[in-house]
Each structure stands twice: as structure tokens, then as C-alpha cells.
Amino acid sequence: MNVTFTLQDQTSRTVEAEPGWKLMEVAVDNAIPGIDGDCGGEAACATCHVYVAPEWRDATGERTDLEQAMLASTFGVRENSRLSCQIETSEELDGLSVEVVGS
Amino acid sequence: MTPASVVIVGAGAGGAQAAASLRQGGFEGSISLVHGEPGLPYQRPPLSKAYLLGRLEARKLLLRQEHWYAKQRVDLVLDRAVAIDRAGHQVHLAGGSSLSYDHLILATGSRNRELPVPGAHLDGVIGMRTRADADELAGRIREGVEVVVAGAGFIGLEFAAVAAAHGAAVHVLELADRPMARAVSEPTAQFIRRAHEEWGVRFDFGQALTAIDGEGRVTGVETGDGRRLPADLVVYGIGVVPDTVLAEEAGLAIENGIRVDDRLLTSDPDISAIGDAASFPSAHTGGRVRLESVQNAVDQARHVAARLMGASIGYDALPWFWSDQGDLKIQIAGLAEVTDSAVEVAVPEPRATCVLRYRGDRLVAVETVNRPGDHVLARRILAGTGGPSPEEASAPSFDLTRWHEAYGLAPTG
């Protein structure tokens, strides 16, 4: 499956992802700038903030409670904000497109 | 001038991040990352949490997957650095070869302070530090096992929570009068203690472990007040010591760690030091500090990478910490000292707390349990200018979010 990250400079990068990994892990392994995942994916640091493209919002599901609480205070949060460590990749998400917010 | 070759010694969170940030910043020279442990570089924080609970498979413990190193042109050197030749700009490895550097980054980390008591060598006495330690512990934690934990710091308590969840009988010995005494205020410490007691963890504060008994393998421990506690397993987390041997032998300045300036340069301008091993002048306390945290390691790594690519600002990232214990998510923003005062904020949830730390009238840190929103906000407030006064925070209706909405300065960036 593929995922496309739109970077802060508005260029895009499409990378291959193996289903079952967190979106944050996919980003870190592909050196996507602006997604750091400092806490290792525990929704503890908010360094993996992304905007999910509108057409992918349903497929990526709802924010978790913890994620919701972190995002509520995070700068630049929008309706389609997610912490990418809380999105697990799957074949259903092939073609997923997100924008990197950066911290 | 940007160096042509960078050698990074130590492939923990900081070392790996330094390599990643150099490439993200457009560095085109060679990067060698020296890793002295078996296997690919891995994350340490989950070792005493999700990994130990069996909730994280081994490959997800890795800091980067194997293909990353080749793609990012990071030469992962599976060997141990044994000496630095500063004049010749070389790092000598245990295997006999050497690496040449224009710039060297020491990310050597820290190692466990060993238990200074008789019997510490017995089978079943384990300090939680490496993946090998965690693998060994995971095989020994079972229902009914008697576990003595020496030290009620982050690692000791994370382990205690996991062991209790597995049905082990857990007894924690701590020299101080409360848990996490160096890291959090009295109210937060007591909140954490109560949670552990609910999980069945027993505490003895103000109590030393004086000896470990057993023949071949551990059977019990002796305490400072002369008691003997049965033990099948002794896990210790009594602090760490910075790994400064390489730096010291190379003649670099040492001061509670490898001494660096506000740009994270050692006394040799061609050598930087980051993470657990480095003591640096803190923009937040005004004094020299050495911090043991992922945030500190990775933010310092980013700083050094940016500097090598031409940036020239001092290091001033806000420190933050986290710990997962049972259902408690403990987060600390900022850096408090033991003498700083504490204002406990009333929160509606029973299993949550928020404590503001003050030096005089200045907010210096915020400790939260299960209040992740407060934590994120606290990081923004502490990185900016001005926070709520102790008087404001003491009001019964005080809420950090409402305060920020009403008085917080709009963040920039």
C-alpha cells in the first residue's frame, strides 16, 4: 500500500507502507520531515501531528480519547487533525493522503 | 563550515536522531553510527512498559527499520568505540578498525548505577537497561513470583506496575521518603504511590536494601532495619551514571557528564556531546544540568545537526518527560528542583492530577497525571513568556485551559 505525505513546503512524497504499522512509524522510517514520534507512539508528545485529507477522514476513524485530549491543546489543530501514531495502516488505507503539520 | 564526515558514537534515541536530522537537513557527507549492542538500534522507553507487557513485537521496538540505514546512507557500524584520537580525528573500534571524522558526536548515554551490596551478582538480580534485560525479565515475571524492586524512580515504578499487573507480589524499597522524589513534587508523588498501592504494590520508604541472599540464585533481601524479605527476583533502578569513559580518556572536560557549552560543543570544537552523557548550561534553570530523557536526547541531536548545517543559535528546548504506569500517564513539562513549591489544581477526574511548580512566583514546571491536554498546553506556556501566578493557580476554580484562553499570549509559529 502507498501513503502520500504533503510536506510543510507543499511538496509531496509517496511512500510504500506495510500494513499493520502506525502511520507515524511509516513516516519516521521514510524520513518524512516534521513527523518525529519522540514518545515512540504513545500519544504522549504530539510530534506527529497531521491533517488527514477530507476523503480519508472516515476510513481513518475517530480520534482516541487520549489523542483527543492531546490535540485539544495542540497548536494549529483543525477538524481533520490526527496524531499519526494513532492511525494504523491497512490495505483499506491504500492511497491515504495526509499533510504534515510540524511542531 | 559543514564537515564532510560525521561519526556518531552511540545509537540510542539521540544518536539515531542525529543521523536522521543531518540527512533531513540536507547533509551530503558520510555518516557512521556506531552501535555497541547486538542487533539494530532500538528504543529504550518501551522496555519497561509495552514491550515488557508483551504488547510490542520486537521489530516495532526498533528505532528505524533495517532498510532506513541504506536509504539514508547511514553506515551502521556494529562495534564498540574504545578510543578517540583527537589529533588524528579518528575513533578506534574494539574490532581493530578505525573511523575518520571531521566532526564527532558523542551520544554514549548512561549505564545503570550498580547495587553496591553483597549478593548483587546472584542470578535473578537484574537492572533494567537493555533489551536483553527486558527479555530476561519478561521470562521471569509470573503470578505469585516475589519481586523486590530497589528504587522508586521512573524505571522501578514502571517495572513495579507491569509486575503487579502480571500477578507478581511486588515490594518496593526506596531510600527517600516518597516515590520519584527527584522528579516530581510531594502531591504528585503521593498520587502515584496511592495508585501503586491499589495495584497491590507494597512500599518501604526511607529504607535501604543492604544485602541480597541466595546461593547461585536470589532467595531474599535484607533491609536497613534488619528485616529479611523473600525474593525470587530483584530489580534495581537506583539511577544511572553517564558514560563518559571515552571522553575522559580523550582528555575532554568532564563535569557530571561530558561538559558542553550552550551549543553542545565539548572542550574540543570538533566534538559534540548529546543526551544522557552530556552536561549542559540550561536556558531554563540557569545552571548546568544533565538530563536523562528521550526528549533531551532527540532535541539535542536536532540542535547539533542544525548547527553542523550552519545554524548558530544556542540550545534552549523545553525539557519534558513521561512515564506510563498502569493506567496512569504521567507527564512533566519543564524542569523543577526539589525546593520549588507545588500548587495542586483541582481536576474533575478521580484518576488525574495537575500540579504546578513555582520558583518564587515563576512557573517552572507542570506535572500531570492523565491530563494530556494540560501537558501540551503547559509545554506551550513554559516555552513562551509568563504563566499563571501561584495565586491564580490556587483559586478553587482554576483550569489551565481556561486560563490560557483568557490570558495566554498567542503562540507564534
Q: What keyword list fits this structure?
A:
heterodimer, A: 103 residues, alpha+beta, Ubiquitin-like (UB roll), 5 strands, 21% strand, B: 413 residues, alpha/beta, FAD/NAD(P)-binding domain, Enolase-like, domain 1, five-stranded parallel sheet, oxidoreductase activity, acting on NAD(P)H (chain B)
Characterization of this structure:
The complex is a heterodimer of chains A (103) and B (413). Chain A has 103 residues and is of the alpha+beta class. Chain A has 3 helices and 5 strands; from the N terminus they run ββαβααββ. Chain A has one domain (2-100): Ubiquitin-like (UB roll). The model of chain A has no long low-confidence stretch (mean pLDDT 93). The interface between A and B is medium-sized, with 23 and 34 residues. Chain B: This is Reductase C-terminal. Chain B: Residues 5-301 form the FAD/NAD(P)-binding domain. Chain B: Its cofactor is FAD.
Q: How would you sum up this structure in a few lines?
A:
Chain A: Its cofactor is [2Fe-2S] cluster. The complex is a heterodimer of chains A (103) and B (413). Chain A is an alpha+beta fold.
Question: Which secondary structure elements does this structure contain, and how are they paired or packed?
Answer:
The complex is a heterodimer of chains A (103) and B (413).
Chain A: E1 2-6, E2 12-16, H1 23-29, E3 49-52, H2 57-60, H3 65-72, E4 81-83, E5 96-100
Parallel strand pairs in A: 1-5
Antiparallel strand pairs in A: 1-2, 3-4, 3-5
Chain B: E1 5-9, H1 13-24, E2 30-35, H2 66-71, E3 74-78, E4 81-85, E5 90-93, E6 98-100, E7 103-106, E8 110-112, E9 125-127, H3 131-138, E10 146-150, H4 154-165, E11 169-174, H5 186-198, E12 202-205, E13 209-215, E14 217-223, E15 228-230, E16 233-236, E17 240-242, H6 245-249, E18 258-259, E19 271-273, E20 278-281, E21 288-289, H7 294-308, E22 320-325, E23 328-334, E24 341-345, E25 353-359, E26 362-369, H8 372-383, H9 390-394, H10 400-407
Parallel strand pairs in B: 1-2, 1-7, 2-3, 7-19, 9-16, 10-11, 10-16, 11-12, 18-20
Antiparallel strand pairs in B: 4-5, 5-6, 8-17, 13-14, 14-15, 20-21, 22-23, 23-26, 24-25, 25-26
Helix pairs in contact in B: 1-7
